[in-house]
Specification:
The protein is of the alpha+beta class. Helix content is 37%, strand content 15%. The chain binds pyridoxal-5'-phosphate.
Length: 494
């Protein structure tokens, strides 16, 4: 196939060129009816291609023309048998994978550090999770991936599993041994689903970890918007081999798509694929070189540590994505949240993620040398600061907690109901600090990274209450609960 072509984007351009008189959605009619200031800001061109499925433009729900071709080009570029464009992110990708692979009540092995959208997939499919413990890195205060040994043990202990689900890479850029795990899972005759939301670029450069499609995962998802150039919300789902029920997959994808997809978004997927297929190697060469330079310079700054290749071989770390710059700031005496806020306030720099000990900056094909210089210089300046209140000083709040060990990720709580049953059960709000022993009816995840500390159906433990109260004090945003400040929590009625 000709990877220089962008058949879907071209179909939209052809429609505009034809000067069709429009009597169809969207109601702004190619910008004519749009608020003038907004239109002026976003530009005429995007308005002109914000159209609706119609003859000549194809339909994402039932592709027969240019979208079919665009998806086939994407499948070829990624080495998949079929690729589907998604416009509600890897969030919908997780839901589609679970709904395709599982029937209600079937079991799936999932790492505990999965993104909360995995739980959405469990709630929708009615499947039962069997949690696999990812490797915990106490030093860096982060979870890495699950190991092949953990997967093999889980399969041996639960022969009735229908599928194994993995997250690789993690939000911090650590990748699992996908090839080995795929061998183990397929040997056991099960499906392998991979949430590769953070690795849409992997397939296009040999210095990046092995991609899920190269490892021949049956289903995998990429957030094309996260590390490549598609618009926000744009993602792809790849399918490989004979194990997946294709009729189910096709039916499921349709229920997760709007009948009125945003066509500029769909076109941005077509174009992002072309960009990678034709220029991926050189664009990523530049990105990787810039990120490596930043990593080296950051590691020369006192009090900072940015992990790289040397982490390979630690439990749960098979490979590392060099384009993720995860900086451990603990030795500066700041929390990651504080550094993130200072970078924004003083230097007008916004990072992707902050947690108690780390910040994560993304280096993508859009990152400039100037931006890299500003980021590194800001960190150099911060490291020379006198800390006014040291959160980690012996008298500090965090140090007291660190000594008590309550900063540690809480142990996985007992699952007392299926996620779906708890999510749909009658629920009531109770005071969070007094919720010990109750069954959680909602998902509570510090965001980012959006990994649930407690999920629907799980018992709320004292450790969980302690940990989340510490995270709240340290300034984390909590996603999921009805009460965003988590003074109360929704639990299943007794
Ligand atoms: C591992 C993982 N999976 C899935 C998602 C959801 O992706 P999206 O934002 O594209 O819906 C995220 C988002 O951060 C994620 O980190």
């Amino acid at each position: 196939m000709d990877q220089t072509k962008t058949p879907y984007f071209q179909a939209l351009l052809d429609y505009v060129d034809a000067g069709v008189v429009p009597f169809h959605t969207p109601g702004h009619i190619q910008g004519n009816g749009m608020d003038a200031a907004f239109r002026e800001f976003i530009g005429d061109n995007i308005c002109a291609i914000d159209l609706t499925p119609m003859p000549g433009i194809d339909d994402l729900l039932q592709p027969t023309e240019s979208i079919k071709e665009a998806q086939a080009l994407a499948a070829q570029a990624y080495g998949a048998d079929r690729t589907f464009f998604l416009i509600n992110g890897s969030t919908s990708g997780n839901q589609c994978m679970m709904m395709t692979a599982l029937d209600p009540g079937q079991k799936i092995a999932v790492p505990r550090n999965s993104h909360k959208s995995m739980l959405g997939g469990l709630v929708m499919s009615g499947a039962e999770p069997v949690y696999m413990q990812p490797e915990v890195d106490e030093e860096l205060h982060m979870d890495h991936c699950v190991t092949p040994q953990t997967v093999a043990r889980t399969l041996a202990e639960h022969p009735d599993l229908a599928a194994v689900y993995l997250v690789s890479p993690t939000y911090y850029g650590v990748a699992a041994d996908l090839a080995k795990i795929a061998g183990i899972v397929h040997e056991a005759g099960k499906l392998l689903l991979v949430d590769e939301a953070w690795g849409p670029h992997f397939h296009f450069h040999p210095d990046l970890p092995l991609s899920a499609t190269a490892a021949r995962a049956d289903l995998s998802i990429n957030s094309t918007h996260k590390m490549l150039s598609a618009f926000s919300q744009c993602a792809m789902l790849h399918q490989i081999g004979e194990r997946v029920r294709i009729d189910r997959l096709l039916a499921v994808i349709k229920i997760f798509l709007s009948t009125s997809p945003n066509l500029p978004m769909v076109a941005s997927l077509d174009v992002a694929r072309k960009q990678m297929a034709t220029h991926g190697r050189e664009l990523l060469d530049r990105t990787i070189a810039l990120a490596r330079e930043a990593r080296e310079r950051i590691n020369r700054i006192d009090g900072l540590y940015c992990f790289g290749e040397e982490l390979k071989g630690r439990p749960g770390v098979f490979d590392v994505d060099p384009t993720k710059i995860a900086v451990t700031v603990r030795d500066l005496g700041y929390t990651g949240y504080e550094v993130s806020a200072l970078l924004r306030r003083r230097y007008n720099i916004q990072v992707e993620l902050a947690d108690l000990f780390n910040i994560v900056a993304l280096f993508t094909i859009g990152t400039t040398r100037d931006a890299m210089e500003r980021f590194v210089t800001a960190l150099e300046e911060l490291s020379r600061d006198e800390r006014p209140v040291d959160m980690f000083a012996p008298s500090g709040l965090l140090e007291q907690r660190l000594n008590r060990g309550s900063y540690r990720f809480p142990a996985v709580p007992p699952m007392r109901m299926l996620p779906r049953d708890a999510f749909l059960a009658p629920a009531e709000a109770v005071l969070f600090r007094k919720s010990k022993g109750r069954i959680c009816a909602e998902t509570i995840s510090p965001y980012p990274p959006g990994i649930p500390v407690v999920a629907p159906g799980e018992e709320i433990t004292e450790q969980i209450i302690d940990y989340l109260r510490l995270e709240l004090k340290a300034g984390v945003r909590i996603q999921g609960p009805y009460d965003a400040e988590l003074r109360t929590i929704r639990v299943v009625c007794e």
